[in-house]
Amino acid sequence: MKPRFFLTSLMLLSGFGHAFGQDSAEIVELVQASGCLSCHSVKEKIVGPALQDVATKYAGNVDAVGSLTQSIKYGSRGKWGRMAMPPHSSISAEDLTTLATWVMSHKP
Ligand code: HEC
Prior knowledge:
With about 110 residues, the chain is mostly helical. Helices cover about 50% and strands about 0% of the residues. It contains six helices and no strands. It has helices at about 5-15, 15-20, 25-35, 50-55, 65-75, 95-105. Helix 5 crosses helix 6 (about 95-105). The longest helix has 12 residues, at about 95-105. It starts with a helix and ends with a helix.
């Protein structure tokens, strides 16, 4: 098997290509390193809401990135259901903005 084909199959098998179709390697790495994917996926609700639903909900909000930055940093409860998101206080301001901008990039 050619290495390139092997890699592509692995990515497809893990659903990686599907979820991160248009995203850069840097953002994928940041999202993974930040642990977001244990509770979120782009298209489906897991513990937390599907990130594309978040982007849809805040699509008309001019300060969506700012407000999502706060939710990620300080945690969030009561907006989506019974589960709360714990705070992520160790993520830098710069990375928080990158993550919130990435979430908002999934508007359909
Ligand atoms: C332990 C599970 C868990 C982890 C880890 C987690 N989330 Fe969440 N997230 C949730 C839950 C549950 C909600 C819904 C909270 C609510 O109802 O207010 C949520 C909500 C959100 C929202 C919507 C907030 C709002 O104001 O409406 C965003 C954006 C978000 N998460 C992004 C992230 C990002 C980015 C990461 C990684 C740094 C992350 N989440 C990690 C569980 C998690």
